[in-house]
Specification:
The complex is a heterodimer. By secondary structure, chain A is mainly beta. Chain A has strands spanning about 5, 10-15, 20-25, 30-40, 45-50, 55-60, 60-65, 70-75, 85-95, 100-105, 105-110. Classes of the chains: A mainly beta, B mainly beta.
Chain lengths: ~110, ~110
Amino acid sequence: KQEVTQIPAALSVPEGENLVLNCSFTDSAIYNLQWFRQDPGKGLTSLLLIQSSQREQTSGRLNASLDKSSGRSTLYIAASQPGDSATYLCAVNSEYNTDKLIFGTGTRLQVFP
Amino acid sequence: DVKVTQSSRYLVKRTGEKVFLECVQDMDHENMFWYRQDPGLGLRLIYFSYDVKMKEKGDIPEGYSVSREKKERFSLILESASTNQTSMYLCASSFWTGAIHEQYFGPGTRLTVT
């Protein structure tokens, strides 16, 4: 059974820092990996999707990498801003059941001025 | 932009009531999903649908049913609401393109059952 773990569970950093959020998964037979952002009391916003054949994806100050064989992904946020404060979730879908996303429990990020 | 909308942001219902949560997407996606999100448990899949009138149970279908009469609309039904169904409910839709299967989420419905 696929399990997705995110470390750390919470992170508090000063504005301007570069930071790394980690996601690990137990079964490397994944199809895609998605990173989402969730603001308090709101839905999920898709940030980046990495196909299993890709190593990384970039969008603005965000860069997500994927090492499928070791079961790891990282989300790198450059020059963090208070507006980046949110919970970040990663999710994978399996090669054998691509309809279902398995989510990690998230990293709650606070960026203070 | 893909838009997934949910009928209510906040809902308060009494134990035993029948509750309908509605979700609509405007991008002609085949797949639609209902999740619930609880602190410490993360997101858990309740039901999903890959076509009109088709449905599949997710990980926690007990106490719920769904309806998909039109492609753009997916309804979650609590036949007899109970306090342990107090939660945040999230709807999503997805599409396939090449090797990509990406899900898009609605804003969520915070349901409180008293």
